[in-house]
Design goal:
- The chain is α/β, with parallel strands linked by helices.
- The chain has three domains: about 150 residues, Resolvase, N-terminal catalytic domain (Rossmann fold), CATH 3.40.50; about 130 residues, Hect, E3 ligase catalytic domain fold (Alpha-Beta Complex); about 160 residues, no CATH class.
- It is about 50% helix and about 15% strand.
- It contains 19 helices and 17 strands.
- The strands form six sheets. Strands 2-1-3-4-5 form a five-stranded mixed β-sheet, sandwiched between helices. Strands 12-16-17 form a three-stranded mixed β-sheet. The chain has a three-stranded antiparallel β-sheet with strand order 13-14-15.
- Helix 9 packs across helix 11 and helix 14 packs across helix 19.
- The radius of gyration is 37 Å and the shape is extended.
- It starts with about 20 loop residues before the first strand and ends with a helix.
């Protein structure tokens, strides 16, 4: 009998051959909140390692290799954990095809992340997923993954993080509004009070450096020049200083022993040095998205006078005014030029830039020089002429302030003062008349609509327009009435505007500090003329009106 043809291949399997051998990835995570609970907590790294190790030993014949991945001190809502990402990379490359965790919350507390990985990616790639606490094993019991317990647990883990984040934000907000400092590290120039970590006290040595930084900027040094000066004089950077003093240092800050312009900028723009606590300037986007975003200034939490000031409010405001000006220097330059950031073209409004030809220094319109000679003209003026003209204008304004102070002293010493402004009274009367007219028009609209003279849409549009006009008039009237009330109360000879100018009675040369204190901007015209626009312009106008009213009254009485 002929042998039958072998039509297929058949292999006899032994019991050991039927067992699939897995490449195991054991994932362990401990959050910062877990860390605060103590090392013996059930979620500690040691506890998780012991549980996963016990499982591995009891099922060792199922695995051909095992790798441990640990993220210590990382929240489960953030998928950008270093070793979590390393685990996923090893899964994608095929190095790992089995993932085990103590419980689902250790893997991820973000519901969408957990579901996407467990239900989709791992299933598509044939990756076995084991969670001991929930008795989940996608290989031995595929239904355990799709069981309702898994998504419910993931949702509960997610909601736990949401509630925790909400409570933490509420506590932080309460502390901020009560003037408690909640930062992990005290800003340079301060240390945390050993008796109360929510209070700041001055660090004398660092505070002197902060004062020097502000002083140098006001005297004309650029931020780059200040950094160079501190480095050349061996002054340790904020991070190096903290390490030297044995103070805590943030791991997120670069360990740079040298000063840089960015460090100087952070010191110059931090209002905490004025003694006011300003917090909440940055925030995490959400409990799921751990990106830091800037908070609009109107939402910052400000509490005044919570700690000792290093810098006065006046000095801080001067510095902020300087920082918004265009005060760039040449790559090798250290000092900001005298008029840098103060000059504007009278025609195009752009900045006037400085140039030097030999020993001659002159200024010209930046539009004309750098963009187009047809868009604007040169508006050139020599430095010596500009400096002399500005100095004369300031001296004149200083003399005016001094004379105003003397006149006000005489007016205020008189028994009666006339403080009514015909200009203000006329303006207020005119605005009140206009508001009455607008109100009357608005009231008649409804009857016009009912009588069929206008449509409903016309009624709505006209009503909205009249309401807008009435609101604008109300704002103007409020401002005018406030100005009239201020005028009626009189003017003190120690008015801040007068004091600001009077302190420079002996001025003979210009400095950056004088310009910063007194000048808003300087316009340069094509014919070489200039106009100096001083700070306190509105205040000077009101003072002049007060003097005019009362001196006219005195003259008439005489």
């Amino acid at each position: 009998m002929a042998r039958a043809k072998n039509r297929g291949y058949q292999q006899t399997l032994t019991p050991t051959d039927t067992i699939r051998r897995w490449r195991l990835g054991a994932y362990i995570r401990l959050s910062k909140e877990d860390l605060k609970k103590g090392k013996d907590d059930s979620n500690s790294v040691k506890n998780q390692r012991d549980l996963l190790g016990d499982f591995y030993r009891r099922h060792m014949n199922e695995f051909e290799s095992a790798v441990e991945y640990v993220d210590d001190g990382h929240t489960g809502t953030d998928a950008n954990r270093e070793n979590f990402q390393r685990l996923l990379a090893d899964v994608m490359s095929g190095k790992i095809n089995c993932v085990i965790v103590k419980d689902l919350s250790r893997f991820a507390r973000n519901y969408s992340d957990a579901g996407s990985l467990i239900d989709n990616l791992f299933v598509q790639m044939g990756v076995r997923f084991i969670s001991l606490a929930e008795n989940v094993d996608s290989y031995l019991n595929p239904d355990s993954v799709s069981n309702i317990i898994v998504p419910i647990t993931n949702v509960m883990n997610d909601n736990y993080c949401y509630q925790t984040s909400k409570k933490i934000r509420q506590v932080f907000d309460y502390k901020r509004r009560n003037g408690q400092y909640i930062g992990s590290f005290a800003p340079y120039g301060y240390i945390k009070d050993p008796k109360d970590k929510h209070q700041l006290i001055v660090d004398a040595d660092a505070a002197e450096i902060v004062k020097r930084v502000y002083s140098m900027l006001l005297q004309g040094s650029s931020k780059r020049a200040i950094a160079l000066y501190l480095n050349e004089h061996g002054t340790p950077s904020p991070t190096a200083y903290r390490r030297k003093k044995g103070l805590p240092v943030s791991s997120a800050v670069a360990d740079d022993p040298m000063w840089g312009a960015r460090m100087i900028h952070e010191i110059l723009t931090n209002p905490i040095y004025t003694g006011d606590l300003v917090q909440g300037r940055r925030r995490v986007k959400s409990y799921k998205v751990h990106q830091i975003e800037a908070v609009p200034e109107e939402e910052w939490v400000r509490v005044p006078d919570t700690h000792e000031a290093i810098i006065t409010h006046e000095t801080f405001d001067k510095v902020q005014a300087l920082l918004v000006r265009d005060t760039r220097t040449s790559p090798k330059g250290r000092e900001v030029h005298l008029f840098s950031g103060f000059l504007k073209c009278a025609d195009c409004g752009k900045s006037i830039t400085r140039s030097q030809s030999g020993k001659n220094i002159y200024y010209a319109c930046s539009t004309y020089k750098n963009r187009s000679r047809t868009a604007c003209s040169m508006h050139s003026i020599k430095h010596n002429r500009l400096e002399a003209a500005v100095l004369f204008a300031i001296q004149y304004q200083v003399n005016t302030a001094v004379s105003y102070s003397e006149l006000i002293a005489r007016i205020n010493s008189a028994p009666l003062k006339k403080s009514q402004s015909h200009r203000l009274n006329d303006q207020i009367a005119a605005k009140e008349k206009e508001l009455t007219r607008i109100t009357r028009y608005k009231q008649s609209l409804y009857q016009d609509w009912k009588d069929g003279e206008i449509t409903q849409q016309e009624y709505r549009d006209m009503k909205a327009d009249y309401e807008r006009q009435a609101a604008e008039l109300a704002d103007v009237l409020a401002r005018l009435n406030a100005e009239r009330a201020e005028l009626a109360n009189g003017v003190d000879k120690e008015h801040p505007a007068l004091v600001a100018f009077a302190k420079y009675q002996s001025i003979e040369t210009l400095t950056r500090e004088i310009l910063t204190d007194l000048v808003d901007h300087i316009k340069v015209y094509e014919n070489g003329n200039i106009s100096v626009h001083f700070k306190f312009a509105d205040e000077f106008r009101k003072i002049a009106e007060y003097i005019e009213i009362n001196t006219t009254d005195t003259a008439e009485a005489g």
